[in-house]
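From the methods appendix. Each design record in this collection lists the tokenized structure first, followed by the designed amino acid sequence. Records were kept in a plain field format so they could be parsed without special tools. The example shown here is representative of the layout used throughout.

RECORD:
FOLD TOKENS (553 positions):
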């Protein structure tokens, strides 16, 4: 009996030396091709469950090449000591975009491309949309492969395009499930599109007239670079495309900004040309629907993009004739606006503007300081002048507008120096001609008014800021910069019966039909509203693009 008890105690002691398997389940998916760390309490042999060779070590790293469920095990001899279960997802499109880009347009998932492309095709037509896709072969190839069913394209991955300083061309990309198959299937597609393969080239290179193309795969993404002129700088291109794992995600603030923007649609990123300038980058997310595209975004800056002016409120838009085709209101300090558009005092663009003014004795800073920063403008289509021009120019349409603009002023003298140096006039009134329009400028101590043509005299006055704010609540608020364009009003003006003195009515009707048909063939765009509002982190951007429903015509 004592022997049996001793044997049992020894067995229990021996069993205690073999601890239970440590099991871990990662709740968040691991990104394909990203480096993942594993560790144990002592050196082990690690099996990553994906067919790759085992690796020895106490702490090891691994990159999973494909998506799916994985069970990683650590072995001490034949005994499993550690087990980690995880899911591997696609490489994020954000991480495929290099940190150095100056422009990028990205669909986080392939499914997000369809609605945006459909809306774009509705706006510009199938032919123009096709030419746009021709410039981004990886995206066009992915769309064709996806439409054909099973392919090397990863439907859960993203796609997009980007441009980088130093590379004279555009890079398009798409996530793939099988890198070798993607390169193999890309060849027939490129040949169909008129590209010719260069023999024995690695990576594959192609030409089409003066254009050059190179295709590369890296960490589950197909990249296609197209240069319109000259050979492809292959070493530089490889260095850009094999950038660190996180890519553009390392841009300060960008992840938080994308998270805060609504939806999961495509997004656009552009970087300031001046690293030390007043703003760093702009990011916009698009939410397309059948007839509307909503854009929401941010301008990232170290401080508010501008501060509202302290000038008196303008009233030009409060009682303007209805039916305008464009309305603008801004409340931006002029010196700040100049810096945002042309850079600081020593920037080349600003120097190019200031040099000829200085030769004429104009002090640009003094002239800008004479303006309050408040600005309002409104424009109408002059249908009678437009159709008369069409008939006199052999059917060639040329825009004809009437418009009014008012800018608040603090003092007239500095502005008068500028105007006197460039225009003829006296007593604060000046006239110039541009684009077939006679333009009058009236300068007072309170404002600078610009007028061309006569506003419609047969339309009821409308409080335009109130009217537009009811439709677009984010717009035309104090301190904002808001722009409204109404192509639908252009179409209505073109369709409204017009009588031209001395002109055969049948010719006018024919000109109207021609003009409306031309506009309909050009675009289905109806209205655009863009609003930018400063906030402590830069500015908030809202935009709405509306398209005409096809069934209406």
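DESIGN:
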């Amino acid at each position: 009996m004592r022997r049996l008890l001793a044997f049992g105690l020894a067995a229990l002691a021996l069993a205690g030396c073999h601890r239970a398997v440590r099991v871990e389940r990662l709740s968040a998916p691991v990104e394909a091709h990203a480096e993942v760390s594993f560790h144990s309490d002592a050196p082990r042999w690690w099996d990553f469950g994906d067919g790759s060779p085992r690796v020895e070590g106490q702490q090891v790293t691994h990159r999973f090449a494909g998506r799916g469920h994985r069970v990683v095990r650590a072995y001490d001899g034949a005994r499993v000591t550690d087990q980690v279960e995880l899911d591997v997802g696609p490489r994020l499109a954000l991480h495929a975009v290099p940190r150095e880009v100056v422009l990028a347009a990205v669909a986080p998932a392939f499914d997000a491309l369809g609605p945006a492309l459909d809306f774009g095709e509705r706006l510009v037509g199938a032919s123009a949309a096709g030419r746009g896709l021709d410039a981004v072969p990886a995206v066009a190839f992915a769309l064709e492969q996806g439409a054909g069913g099973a392919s090397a394209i990863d439907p859960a991955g993203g796609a997009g395009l980007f441009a980088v300083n130093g590379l004279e061309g555009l890079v398009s990309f798409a996530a793939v499930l099988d890198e070798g198959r993607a390169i193999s299937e890309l060849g027939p597609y490129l040949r169909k599109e008129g590209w010719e393969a260069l023999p024995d080239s690695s990576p594959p290179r192609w030409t089409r007239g003066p254009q050059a193309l190179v295709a590369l795969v890296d960490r589950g993404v197909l990249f296609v670079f197209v240069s319109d002129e000259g050979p492809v700088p292959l070493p530089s291109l490889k260095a850009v495309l094999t950038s660190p794992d996180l890519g553009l995600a390392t841009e300060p603030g960008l992840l938080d900004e994308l998270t805060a923007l609504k939806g999961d649609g495509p997004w656009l990123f552009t970087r300031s040309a001046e690293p030390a300038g007043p703003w760093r980058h702009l990011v916009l997310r698009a939410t397309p629907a059948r007839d509307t595209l909503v854009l929401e975004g941010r301008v990232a800056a170290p401080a508010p993009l501008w501060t509202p002016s302290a000038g008196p409120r303008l009233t030009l838009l409060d009682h303007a004739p209805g039916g305008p085709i464009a309305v603008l209101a801004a409340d931006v300090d002029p010196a700040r606006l100049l810096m945002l558009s042309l850079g600081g005092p020593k920037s080349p663009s600003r120097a190019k503007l200031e040099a000829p003014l200085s030769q004429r004795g104009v002090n640009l800073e003094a002239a800008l300081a004479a303006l309050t920063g408040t600005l309002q403008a409104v424009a109408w289509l002059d249908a009678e002048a437009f159709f008369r021009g069409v008939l006199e120019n052999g059917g060639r349409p040329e825009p004809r507008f009437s418009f009014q603009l008012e800018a608040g002023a603090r003092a007239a003298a500095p502005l008068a120096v500028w105007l006197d140096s460039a225009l003829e006039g006296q007593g604060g009134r000046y006239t110039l001609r541009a684009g077939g329009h006679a333009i009058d400028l009236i300068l007072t101590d309170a404002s600078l008014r610009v007028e061309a043509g006569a506003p419609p005299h047969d339309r009821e006055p409308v409080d335009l800021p109130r009217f537009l704010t009811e439709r677009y609540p984010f717009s035309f608020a104090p301190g904002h910069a808001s722009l409204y364009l109404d192509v639908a009003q252009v179409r209505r003006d073109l369709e409204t019966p017009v009588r031209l003195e001395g002109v055969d009515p049948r010719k006018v009707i024919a000109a109207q039909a021609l003009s409306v048909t031309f506009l309909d063939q050009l675009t289905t765009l109806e209205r655009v509203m863009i609003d930018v509002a400063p906030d402590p982190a830069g500015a908030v951007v809202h935009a709405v693009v509306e398209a005409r429903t096809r069934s209406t015509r």
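APPENDIX NOTE: Confidence is low (pLDDT under 50) at residues 1-17.
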